Amino acid sequence: MLKLCALGLKASALEERLPTVVTMDNGGFCDDNYQSGSSDDELVDISDVTVDFSEDVPPLDRDYSAGRCKAEWRPNNSPKLMDLLDDTVPGIGTYEDFNTIDWVREKSKDRDRHREITNKSKQSTVALLFSISDAFSGWLLMLLIGLMSGALAGGIDIAAHWMTDLKEGVCLNGFWFNHEHCCWASNETTFQERDKCPQWKSWAELMVGVSEGPGLYVVNYFMYVCWALLFAFLAVILVRAFAPYACGSGIPEIKTILSGFIIRGYLGKWTLIIKTITLVLAVSSGLILGKEGPLVHVACCCANILCHFFTKYRRNEAKRREVLSAASAVGVSVAFGAPIGGVLFSLEEVSYYFPLKTLWRSFFAALVAAFTLRSINPFGNSRLVLFYVEFHTPWHLLELIPFVLLGIFGGLWGAFFIRANIAWCRLRKNTCLGHYPVLEVVVVTLFTALLAFPIEYTRMSSSELISELFNDCGLLDSSKLCSYTSNSGSASGSVNATAANGLGARLAGQGLYTAMWQLALALVLKMFFTVVTFGMKVPSGLFIPSMAVGAIAGRLLGVCMEQLAIRHHEQDIFRGWCSPGADCITPGLYAMVGAAACLGGVTRMTVSLVVIMFELTGGLEYIVPLMAATMTSKWVADALGRESIYEAHIRLNGYPFLEAKEEFRHKTLATDVMRPRRSDPLLSVLTESRMTVEEVERLIADTTYSGFPVVISQQSPRLVGFVLRRDLIISLENARRHQEGVVSTSPILFTECDPPMSPSAPPAVKLRSILDLSPFTVTVHTPMEIVVDIFRKLGLRQCLVIQNGRLLGIITKKDILKHMAQMANRDPDSILFN
Hints:
The chain has 834 residues and is mainly alpha-helical. 51% of the residues lie in helices and 6% in strands. It is a multi-pass membrane protein.
């Protein structure tokens, strides 16, 4: 029997060292967070190792003639230390703040859970029903996320529209009506002055009884600025006091979280509540920002909160990130009314792990969210967005040239914006400017309101501006952008005067020239304030400001092309463009193409952006212009800088994000990146059977590393496995509480068989159940491009470096990020987390 035990030990030890095992069924996580100085960067303490690696390893069939083999340790007849399904030891398998999850272990836990549910379902009807409900729970969760996100988006749209109009006046029939809804029921509204009705009163008319003259302008100007300052002040105070994570867009952090990073509270209930409220306030204040990006954050908050009601997603971080990927699609779906574009946005831009079932569920959740928003009908036009348009005039082949020019402009704008905004955010972060976020928001709001009110196109909200610029002038339009004169020279305030001659013969009128220089001035202001505003301590999206910049540039170019074609319609190049009863050129189409180009230059979106714009217009005919402009924008922007605005902010904040699009072309090896280095401290390792509780606790107290390799002995550095700090601490505390006789001199065992012990020795603490017996390993000669691919595709936190089974060092995710930054001539110390 004793020989069989020794042979069993040898066989199991040899089997444990087989490199084909890739699951990590047992593991934990570090107990310390970033603030306390712990990070995966310091998983082990490595330096001039005193171990002599040249020494031959003793045979594995050690003599445990006085010992015994047993599968598991059960103190006081209690369950084993770690059970992947029962979680008998609370805390094991969980993660601390500002650390990375173990994707391999999480997927292994889910496979084990699913395997057990499947086996039990064959034994009883109750277990079968539970198995069915478990399979259906994912679809139910998607339904709830879609309903909740759609309802919140509808409420945000209605509230933001009302509060934006509140800056200019109030409805006497009911203060809860916005300007448009107030005048709908009025019988005294004329078509020429559709925005004026007796029921809607400006602040000047209410306060001083002035209906015209300079007094009206001054009072309305003053009230506009006051309301803007009040809304912005409330937004920044609420964010600062209750939910600091509610500021910004949220997409850079969402991308980092989806890659496996833990940011506690970022998707919590307080963040959801404050972000919803302050998003309405920030948009209504008139700041150059949008609500579309933050809606992705809001949808992910909804998903994270709802996940807590489903055990499958509450206990598994990898499964929860599949839900968050679907929630990202929901956010874009309710932001633009584009369910398909939202799914593609999640796949192309934010998701790190996107299996096929997540694609189906994302589509279902986005569909439910869009249906919910359509049922609410926040804009009263039966559309999901305020700037939905339909074009009917075909485009001409030669128009691809100005479309490509718009793409070039979008790429240049994107590269300029990213560099300027990152420089401004770095200045805010490294100087005293960052110490006064409330003052910064108030000052920027003050200057924005002072400069925006005199210009019609900056005074209106960005969504209304985009709707105005996308609009295709018709017979009933009274906008300045549709102010034309007929060929005969008769002046007209609208296109009505040209109806007899056909809309194809439109020459610019005085109102159009006025609108052109106002748009040019608005373009400059939008570009400047977009750079300054994005990144402040209020919810701020980037989609709408970028689209507004591109739409203004596109409309200006479209009007120029239109007038050029009209004035030279007899030339060969323009012959056939203009015909009676039809437009020569659609300036609104240029605005839409410009909006797509500028948004693509900033975010580097391609396929998803084209689909979103297609869903906005509802026409397949304009996909080619959109594709041409979007690809040109991306090529130009990539030539000037490879990072999108979100990746740039991820790098600015030091998040541990391995970008899948970035190629590693350097010819370095694992030995060039691994630690220990010559100047590093000694390697802190655990032995599988020769350490006491006191020694392990002293090692934990003296170091801040997140885990320790386990070797056979200091003289025989053959790798046995890897144990994480958090699991080790929790297991030792559990053993002291529940196992009788555990003292400081009790031995720690990671072996399957007990070594010989004297009868008077204290009982051993067996921790094999928390030992990862199959840590990922590479050799010192493994190229770093392979190591980087392994970390990207498997989501590893650390990888051990061995040679002939002997432990030589370790490579963490932070080591790789620092190495990549060093190879790119960037500061490697900018990587703050792991």
